[in-house]
Amino acid sequence: MVLTLSIDCVIDLDQSDAMGRQLPVASTPERVSTPVELKNVYSGNNPNLALIRQQVPEHGNGRLSHQSVSGDLFVFRFERTTESYEIFIEQQRGYGGRACDAQATHRLGLSSDRPRICIGPGKEPRDLPTAMFLAMLWAERTSRYIRDGKPWS
């Protein structure tokens, strides 16, 4: 299984040469997105945090396109806050008639146009690999819930 992660980086274009002279380039930082293919980040049918850590930088904002083991496509957006990461759900399949309230689906922000994964207080991911791991785990549990109605626990 190959997953695609785009990591947003900020490049400061206001640079100087080796002699310390200012180079004539734009002075505003530029955002670039670097696509990264993640390979072999699952053990069995579950994501493996250690394998994710080997391929993903510790910090950065980004977007992950993830196909669950069941074949469902999910797209997540990771945004770093002061101390942790928010995991926004940009795309997922419908719940097919199953309960889709916040409690049943472990999602917050359903009334806004930016739903995100619900993570308990004090358990927020502190780095990008952990945020990705939680998103992938959420996707697998969500796919299972949609298909067979099994609750998360």
Gyration radius (Cα, Å) is 18 Å
Q: Would you report the number of β strands? A: 9
Number of helices: 3
Find the structural class using helix and strand composition: alpha+beta
Read across the widest sheet, the strand sequence of neighbours is 2-1-5-6-7
Summary of the model, kept short:
The protein has 153 residues and is of the alpha+beta class.
Labels describing this entry:
single chain; 153 residues; alpha+beta; five-stranded antiparallel β-sheet; two-stranded antiparallel sheet; 20% helix
Overview of the molecule:
- The chain is an alpha+beta fold.
- The chain has 3 helices and 9 strands; from the N terminus they run E-E-E-E-H-E-E-E-H-E-E-H.
- The chain has a 5-stranded antiparallel sheet with strand order 2-1-5-6-7, with helices on one face.
- Strand 6 and strand 7 (85-91) form a beta hairpin.
- The protein is globular and about 40 Å long.
Summarize the helices and strands and which ones pair or pack.
Elements: E1 2-11, E2 30-39, E3 42-43, E4 46-47, H1 49-53, E5 61-67, E6 73-80, E7 85-91, H2 102-105, E8 107-108, E9 116-117, H3 128-148
Antiparallel strand pairs: 1-2, 1-5, 3-4, 5-6, 6-7, 8-9
